[in-house]
Design a protein that fits this description.
It is a single chain. This protein is mostly beta strands and 260 residues long. It has 5 helices and 20 strands. The strands form 3 sheets. Strands 1, 2, 3, 4, 5, 6, 7, 8, 11, 12, 14 and 17 form a 12-stranded mixed β-sheet that branches. The longest helix has 9 residues.
C-alpha cells in the first residue's frame, strides 16, 4: 500500500507526496498522471494536511449497506442510488465544519469509505472499473438533517449535504487497499458510534464506478462516497468526529457553532 497526501508547508507552499511515518516524500507534476519524485522530504510537523484531492464533485451513495437497508426496510438497489455534493463542500482533516448561517437544527455525521477516481471514466465496463480507481480515503458525509425534508414537495438531498465544509475527506489516499477486509469506525468525542464491515456493502466499488460512469463522466480526483451503515447520529457544536479506516488513518473534524 502507498499513502498519498496533499499538504501546505509552514511557508505556504502547496505540495503532495508519499506519506511516511514521520515525513512526506515530495512529488511534483500530477498525482493522477506523471507524478515525479523531487528528491525532497518534508517533516510532518512542518506541514498542514489538506484534503488529499480536489474533486469536482463527490458522488454520495444512499442505501448501499445491507444492515442499514434491513433496518430501514428497503430493497437492495441494483443500480447506484446517489446524490452529488459539490466540490465547494470539500475540506481536509482538522478543518472546522461550519454550521450554515441561520441554521440551528441537527447536523449529522456519516462515516464512509471514499473511492478516488484516477482517470477519466465514461461508460466503463465493470471488468475495467478497477483500472479507474486510484485509491481510497475516509469521508464524513455531513448532513443538515432538518433541511432534507423541510419542503414536503421535494427531498433536498443536495442542499442538506452540499453546504460548504460538509464534504470532509482525508487524511490520505491509500492505493492497494484491501477494502473488503476493513471496517469503518466513527467516534464522536472519542466514543464509538459506528463500527461496520465494508464487506456488508451491497454494490462494490467496481459496481459503483461502472454504474455511475454510465450516468455521468467521472474525472480524476472525483470521489465516490460508498454510503454509510447503522449508527448515524447528531453532532453537537464543538464536538469532534473521527472517521477511521485501517490503512488510511483517522479523519478528524470539529463542528463550529456558526459561520465566522
Amino acid at each position: 500500500m502507498t499513502r498519498w497526501a496533499r499538504f501546505r508547508s509552514n511557508d505556504g507552499r502547496i505540495g503532495f507526496g508519499m506519506f511516511e511515518e514521520t515525513h512526506i516524500l515530495e512529488y511534483e507534476g500530477d498525482l493522477f498522471g506523471g507524478a515525479r519524485p523531487t528528491g525532497r522530504t518534508v517533516a510532518q510537523d512542518a506541514v498542514t494536511l489538506l484534503s488529499p484531492c480536489t474533486p469536482s464533485k463527490i458522488i454520495a451513495l444512499w442505501n448501499n449497506f445491507h444492515a442499514l437497508r434491513q433496518k430501514l426496510g428497503k430493497s437492495a438497489p441494483t443500480h447506484p442510488l446517489f446524490l452529488i455534493k459539490p466540490g465547494t463542500s470539500v475540506i481536509g482533516p482538522n478543518v472546522l465544519i461550519r454550521r450554515p448561517t441561520g441554521y440551528t437544527g441537527k447536523i449529522a455525521y456519516e462515516g464512509e469509505l471514499g473511492i478516488v477516481i484516477g482517470k477519466l471514466c465514461k461508460d466503463v465496463a465493470r471488468s475495467e472499473a478497477a483500472d479507474h480507481i486510484f485509491g481510497y480515503t475516509c469521508v464524513n458525509d455531513v448532513t443538515a438533517s432538518e433541511v432534507l425534508n423541510e419542503n414536503g414537495d421535494f427531498a433536498q438531498w443536495c442542499r442538506s449535504k452540499g453546504y460548504d465544509t460538509f464534504g470532509c475527506l482525508g487524511p490520505v489516499i491509500t492505493t492497494g487497499l484491501e477494502w473488503s477486509r476493513l471496517s469503518v469506525i466513527t467516534r464522536l468525542d472519542g466514543v464509538e458510534r459506528q463500527n461496520y464491515p465494508l464487506s456488508d456493502m451491497i454494490l462494490s466499488p467496481e459496481d459503483l464506478v461502472s454504474g455511475i460512469s454510465h450516468d455521468m463522466t467521472l474525472l480524476p480526483g472525483d470521489v465516490i462516497a460508498c454510503g454509510t451503515s447503522v449508527g448515524i447520529g447528531s453532532i453537537k457544536d464543538g464536538s469532534a468526529v473521527e472517521v477511521n479506516i485501517g490503512g488510511i488513518g483517522a479523519l478528524v473534524n470539529i463542528l463550529s457553532p456558526s459561520e465566522p
